[in-house]
Design brief:
307 residues, mainly alpha, 14 helices, membrane, MetI-like_sf
Length: 307
C-alpha cells in the first residue's frame, strides 16, 4: 500500500513538472515568435515594396505582391537618377568598407595578440583606454575627426572615410579576449623551445587558430563601415564621392513623394525606387552574413570558455 502510494505521488509530481515544462516552453515559443514577427515584417515589407507602384504601395495591403516588371521599372528609374550615379555610390561603398576593413584587421588582431601574450609597460592603461574608446558614441568623435582630416587637407577624399572608419577599438578588445582565453599556452611554449621567433609564432600558430576571430571582426567591421552615414555625410561634399547610405539620403531628400517641402519635380523617383535602393544597401550584408555565419558562431563562443 505504501509503495503504491509513493509511486502514485511520484507520477503526480512528474505530470506536474511536465505540465509546467510544457507551459514554459509554449510561453518561450510565443515570445520568440513575437520577436521574429516584429523583426521580419519590416524586412518583408521592404522586399515587397519595389514590386508595386507608388499608388499600389499607398492603397494596397502592405504585404501584397505587385509584379516583377515593376521591380525592373523601379531599377531603370533609379539608375536614371543623375546619369546612373548610384553605380558610383556602390563602388565607393565597397572601396570605403574594404579599405577600412583591411586596416582594421591588420591593427586589431596584431594589437590584441600583443596585449594578450606580452607584458608591455602600460598594458593595463592601454586596455582601459580601449574600453573608454568603445563606450564613446562614434558621432561624438566626428567633429574632432573632421578637424584633423581637414588639417591635413584630406576632406572630400576616400581617405577621409577610410582612415576614421579603420579606428575600431572593439576589434582590439575582442582580439585581446580571444587570444587571452583560447590560445594554447603549452603549444606556444613548445614552439619557443624549438626556436620559433615571435613573428613565426603569430603567423604559424596564433593566426591560423584565430580564423573565427578574424571572421567575427571582419563581419562587424564591414557592417559598421557599410552602414556608416554620419561620418561620410560630414567628410564628403561632392555627390560623386558619396557612399550608398549618404546617396540614398540624397535621393530621399530630392524626392517630392518623401519630401513634399521641395515641391513638384519631374524625377520618376517615388517610394518603390527608394525601397529598392534600401534593398540594395541591405543585400550585401545579408550575403556576407550567410557566408560567414559559421565563423561568427565559432568566434562568439570561442572566448566564453577558458582553456
Amino acid at each position: 500500500m505504501t509503495t503504491a502510494s509513493a509511486e502514485h505521488a511520484a507520477g503526480r509530481r512528474r505530470r506536474s513538472r511536465s505540465k509546467r515544462w510544457t507551459l514554459g516552453r509554449t510561453l518561450r515559443c510565443v515570445i520568440l515568435l513575437g520577436f521574429a514577427v516584429y523583426c521580419l515584417i519590416p524586412l518583408l515589407w521592404l522586399l515587397l515594396a519595389p514590386t508595386k507602384t507608388d499608388a499600389q504601395l499607398v492603397g494596397d495591403h502592405p504585404l501584397s505582391f505587385g509584379s516583377l516588371d515593376q521591380v525592373a521599372t523601379a531599377w531603370h528609374h533609379l539608375i536614371a537618377y543623375d546619369s546612373g550615379v548610384i553605380y558610383q555610390w556602390l563602388v565607393n561603398s565597397v572601396l570605403y568598407s574594404a579599405g577600412s576593413l583591411v586596416i582594421t584587421l591588420a591593427t586589431s588582431v596584431l594589437a590584441g595578440y600583443a596585449l594578450a601574450t606580452t607584458r608591455v609597460r602600460g598594458r593595463r592603461l592601454i586596455l582601459v583606454l580601449t574600453l573608454i574608446a568603445m563606450i564613446v558614441p562614434p558621432t561624438a568623435l566626428v567633429l574632432p575627426l573632421f578637424l584633423e582630416i581637414n588639417a591635413v587637407h584630406l576632406t572630400n577624399t576616400a581617405m577621409s572615410v577610410i582612415l576614421p572608419g579603420a579606428f575600431y577599438p572593439f576589434g582590439v578588445y575582442l582580439a585581446f579576449i580571444y587570444f587571452s582565453t583560447s590560445l594554447p599556452r603549452e603549444l606556444m611554449e613548445s614552439a619557443r623551445l624549438d626556436g620559433a621567433t615571435e613573428i613565426r609564432l603569430f603567423w604559424s600558430i596564433a593566426l591560423p587558430l584565430a580564423k573565427p576571430l578574424v571572421g567575427l571582426i571582419a563581419f562587424f567591421g564591414f557592417v559598421a563601415n557599410w552602414n556608416n552615414y554620419f561620418l561620410p555625410y560630414v567628410m564628403l561634399s561632392e555627390q560623386e564621392m558619396f557612399n550608398l547610405p549618404v546617396g540614398l539620403g540624397a535621393v530621399i531628400s530630392g524626392t517630392p513623394a518623401l519630401n513634399p517641402a521641395i515641391g513638384g519635380s519631374q524625377l520618376p523617383i517615388t517610394r518603390p525606387e527608394v525601397a529598392l535602393a534600401g534593398v540594395i544597401v541591405v543585400l550585401p550584408i545579408a550575403v556576407i552574413f550567410l557566408l560567414c555565419q559559421r565563423y561568427l558562431v565559432r568566434g562568439i563562443l570561442a572566448g566564453s570558455v577558458k582553456s
